[in-house]
Amino acid sequence: MVVSEDVINESSALVELEKKLDVCFENKQLLNVAVTHSSYANGKKNIKFNERLEFLGDSVLQISISEYLFLNYSKKTEGELTKRRSLIVCENSLYEIAKKWDLGKYIRMSKGEEITGGRERVSILADCVEAIIAAIYIDCGFEKAREFVLSNFKDTIDKAIKNKIILDYKTKLQEVMQKNGDVNIQYDLIKYEGPPHRRKFYTQVSVNDKTLGNGTGYSKKESEQSAAKTALKELEKNNG
Fold this sequence. Notes:
Number of strands: 3
CATH topology of the largest domain: Ribonuclease iii, N-terminal Endonuclease Domain, Chain A
Order of helices and strands: HHHHHHHHHHHEEEH
Active site: 58, 130
CATH architecture of the largest domain: Orthogonal Bundle
Shape: flat
Number of helices: 12
CATH class of the largest domain: Mainly Alpha
EC number: 3.1.26.3
Largest sheet: 3 strands, antiparallel
Region (Disordered): 211-240
Subcellular location: Cytoplasm
Subunit structure: Homodimer.
């Protein structure tokens, strides 16, 4: 259930989010601002939104990950560290973490933004994660913020070091399948449902007419990436 933007200010909603984050804010207003999208503030006086926090949070995230990689992977070159960091500190990684917290339901946004899918929009969720990191930094200091980052990005860091992060599942699927020669990879839109502003697409991916995976998304591109991701998981499972 989506928390109404009219009651997000209530302490119960913020406490619920604090529990998910495992952080107790001394200044609850910082968290409140961190989950306020700019659309919510339009036409309202004295409403702060999270763009400035997002700016700061990006820097805190960058230095936390950079320091960790520098201290723990002394044999890797500057270029290798930069590549790994770019895999960790990216919109997709932030989005995946936001989904774990079910962050979308806590964000304050306008009705217009909400009905066009704002609560699940990758950029909005990713920006909100960075804003939350900044709020923790301001409220609790750098040590707590760094601890929070490393705890929540642990799996992402491990995958980046092992080169297991995939940003483009369609390209990866093509690379895997074509190791054994040319193949015909086809993405078919099976159906779509929902109103125009909230349409959900269902896609099926086949290789040489054999179905390998199905996916969904709120755009054709997103549903194709989802289908390719499912296909890769199936191939990995079948190959042990």
